[in-house]
Amino acid sequence: MRKSKAVSAWSLVAASALVLSACSGGDSGSTDQNGSSTDIKSMATGKAQNGENFKLADTKGYEGTVTVGIDDGYSGYNNDTPDTNTSYNTYILTAVLAGADVLDGNNKVLLNNDVFDSWEVTSKAPQTVVYKIKPNVKWSDNEAFDCDDMYLSWLAHSGKAKTSDGKQAFLAASTTGYQLINEATCKDDLTFETKYTEPYLDYKGLFNSTAIMPAHIVEKRSNVPDITKLTPTSDAAQLKAAGEFWTNGFKAFKAEDMPASGPYKITAFDANQKAVTLEKNPNWIGGKGGPSKIVVKAMEDTKAMATALQNGEIDIAASTQPDATAAGTMKSLAAQGVTYGSASQLTFEHIDLNYKRMFKDKNLRKAFFEVVNRQEITDKLLKEVQADATPLNSIVFMPGEQGFKDLYSSKAGLGAEAAAKTLTDAGWVKGGDGIFAKDGQRASFKISHNQNTRRQQTVEIIISQAKAAGIEITDDQDANFLKGGRLAASDYDAALFGWSAAPFKAEQKSIYITRVDDSSQNYQGLSNPTIDSSFEAAVKATDEAVQLESYQKADQAIADEYATLPLFQTPSMWAFKGIDRTYMQSYNGVLWNVGEWEQKK
Q1: What digits encode the pLDDT tens for the residues 124-176?
Q2: Which of 48, 182, 456, 527 lies 20 to 30 Å (CA to CA) from residue 533?
Q3: Residues 378, 475 within the same domain
Q4: Which residues contact 440 (CB under 8 A, 6 or more apart)?
Q5: What is the pTM of this model?
Q6: Residue 89: which domain range?
Q7: CATH code: domain of residue 182
Q8: Structural domain contains residue 380
Q9: CB within 8 A of 432, min separation 6: which ones?
Q10: DSSP string, 351-374
């Protein structure tokens, strides 16, 4: 699953956080219609959470090792470059790196009060936000976590730092929000001030945990004496050196270059076993609870993950790739002391159509939408996981959010006859093999995705639906499709994957506006002036009503392009034993509050 930066596409909150409640009901030990145990909802908040602040509770902890299964493997300590930017890195790094915000299980945006004293808007003209870091916060290698790290985060994400040949010095997955900061200043070691060229309502989505890399490591490895002396227009050679290391130097596992600022540090990475070992950060300033050691394993077969939990090979099965058989297995383990949970995520499954290939033909895009019956996909693949799962009918908004409108029921799932008519009216002709063709191009293409059983099943269903309309589809399953660079390189006809959203909207801009450089996440080549101008207006808006209207306009324009077909809001499913409480946070996974876990009594 890919992850976007600051706001959606996995992204953020445009004025109010989207709150997704877990499902509960019935007597103790029973399950509700979605299968979640009755006490799951209460686990969505931290034990010491207070108002708008989050701190990890100082608990007795858990002596021993907790083994966690997730769907895919870790690929990089810096998760903010285009080729490492995945949810699966975030699921691990949330326990390793500290940022200004914490999202609880209800997706409420909270100040990380273990590390920061405040984030305050001190002026509205120009918008000025001041961050106060707590005294004595340290990285696990004993270096100070201070304003230098915040400054590097801005420099790397701003999109302003260029090399002598005019290229981006730092290749960030998204610059949204950061590019509006024209002054970033360390007032002292613990005070970081940002001034914006334009108002930015989603500022709390910036400087999150994966955005803040250790400045002292970048300085050391790139021979830059003081990162705060570098400006976007200063020494191009030093910018190039710092940017090169920031972009590429954190990829291969090297413990001495990858310290922790959060409660845990990475002590081992087995690429062959796709396993990461975490141990407590001795310099962590917050609560001292949580397991002594955590092993996070990639288990791409969700059914095998459920079986591993049943057999005692793992303690937590945490999947964002819902599977009916696996869900049934997990729910059957209550007698073994297993608690099961499911909840809608700020993640959506979708299919992007590549404008650089045959889908530059809008009529083919339209016919594809018409032939895909998303209700059949949802019914067959999700109902056992979450009984009330339905197709998703917006790209920018989730159901229940202010601004949500159904834009896709009238476009998708209209049937084979409607799709065939669209192609016929556009000059496509059905050949003797039953497949439409036009100008020597057959209506034959691949749907590419990573190694994932549910996605394979999704494609199988679509293949059958499309065949009836004279469209030929082939399943292109590649274990490295997401993290191997194919998606980012636009090496696909149609791409089946998920965007994971924190509760802000602004970062969707990077995914859907016209691509101008390699920092964009618009891999499909979509380019539409209404989409561009609407996102620009939304991000710059100072009035929430204007912002909402602009996001709605962008949402409508994306739908009218037939560019990306939303399938469903992906439900997570997780199950655990031996631990008092875990909750699968929609954006950060189960480890978001691992530092306060305790052994179940």
Answers
A1: 999 999 999 999 999 999 999 999 999 999 999 999 999 888 889 999 988 88
A2: 182
A3: yes
A4: none
A5: 0.76
A6: 66-96+262-337+578-600
A7: 3.90.76.10
A8: yes
A9: none
A10: EEE-TTTGGGSHHHHHHHHHH--H
